[in-house]
Amino acid sequence: MALVLHRPQSSASAADRPLVHQIGPQVGPRSNLDRASIGLTGRVITTERRVLIVAVLASFVAFLDGSIITVALPAISRELGGGLVLAQWVVDGYLLSLGALILVAGSLSDTFGRVRVLRIGLVWFGIASLACAVAPWGSALVLARVIQGMAAALLVPSSLALITSTFSGAAQGRMIGAWTGWTGIAGIMGPVFGGILVDTASWRLIFGLNVIPIAVTLVLLGRLDEPARARPAAPIDAWGAGLAALGLGGPVFALIEQGRLGWASPIVFVPLVVGLLSFAGFLWWEARAPHPMMPLSLFTIRNFGVGNIATVGVYAALGLGFFVFTLYLQQVGGLSATAAGFAGIPATIMLLLFATLFGTLAGRYGPRMFMAVGPVVAGVGFLLLIGAVPPIDLWLRVVPAIVVIGLGLAITVAPLTSAVLGSVRPEQAGIGSAVNNAVARVAGLVAVALAGTIIGGALDVDGFQRVMVVVAGLMFAGGIASWLGIRTPASVAAPEHPE
């Protein structure tokens, strides 16, 4: 890749590490090689900074669009109709295509290059965003959201793979922490901007404004060289992609529609059975396919496998928790869309302040302790929200709980990402990132589809409290899995000795 740092060839041991970790304070007079390295360092730092900005912006629009929609759902339902079912489909249509195709996108990123795949994803994301902004009816909006999810699948793994391919060791932990912090901010700041736009203008603007960060990212991408392809293009796993789409789509359709039609309806029962059989077929095929889009062998790597188990608990909790929380504040608590959006700001602040710190600490001491403690802290925060009953006192019942949730997320997300991606080889960074992101999106997808079942009909105080208990349980499960299964990497456990 053109973005990989060049390494001096004069030392065999030095060639095993990126140049950015070789340059530091020197003892004694500086040689000509030292001065050349310093000059090169200035250029490399600029390139690295640009890589980080591109990675953050490309992921930012995908995460922002996944979260900003929640605060606009009541307004969308008032204008287009559809009630809770349309709200679930507007969210899950995006997550469904994202989760089903992100694995293929990860393989494309590894094969054809991060920059090229990012550029295509950004263009299509912008087109789909404009289609959402002008959607005349609910089904058209859901279709545009599905296309958005397909484009987002190209963005997330490629952007994170840029970071993991450029940085290593503690520096990688810091950069993943920065990436996680800003993309996490997108996920929680989305409702703030969405609420303001819904109350002051129209929910349609939340999609139309996507073109601004997309245009900026495309300009920055133009200044990055397309990395040379490291290997011939592998055939696309069409069977795997098709089986994954059916395996996810069928059960999600059944979970959403069963509240309206009932489990006995063939319209619900048949997609459920077909989906479950397709998912089983997907696993069977991936174990035998010559070019699988989800190499099952990755899950034999301990930290990768356990990290993805923890991902299921954490991101299922986040998807379900914030989906219901935002609806509840408006539909039951009577808050405006803006107020409901601002309720998440404390968590945003916690992520902004502490995500990079905990990413750095995880790179230094290992991710296990942080991945175990963080979800428990976030789970306690969701339990605190049980006390938010009408008339809702935001400062007493909501803000403290959201602060605790934000702290738990700051402790968790960067070490979790670092543990999963740090366990795979650099050339597998794209597919590793894609698998982990697919697991996260699918966990949120299924959790949102289950919202109606957990709520039990119309959203009320009792239904909201049941959801918060379930969400806390999912968080606790993620923390327990991490404590029992995650191991500290040897490179962290063994102190480094200077050469």
Automatic annotation (TrEMBL):
InterPro entries: MFS (IPR011701), MFS_dom (IPR020846), MFS_trans_sf (IPR036259). GO terms for molecular function: transmembrane transporter activity. GO terms for cellular component: plasma membrane. Residues 51-490 form the Major facilitator superfamily (MFS) profile domain. The keyword Mitochondrion does not apply. Signal peptide: none annotated. Keywords: Membrane, Transmembrane, Transmembrane helix. It is found in: Cell membrane. The chain crosses the membrane at residues 51-73, 85-105, 117-137, 143-164, 176-197, 203-224, 236-256, 262-285, 306-329, 335-358, 370-392, 398-421, 442-461, 467-486. The keyword Nuclease does not apply. Its main location: membrane. SUPFAM superfamilies: MFS general substrate transporter (SSF103473). It is a multi-pass membrane protein. PANTHER family: EXPORT PROTEIN, MAJOR FACILITATOR SUPERFAMILY MULTIDRUG TRANSPORTER MFSC. This is MFS transporter. The lineage of its organism: Bacteria, Bacillati, Actinomycetota, Actinomycetes, Micrococcales.
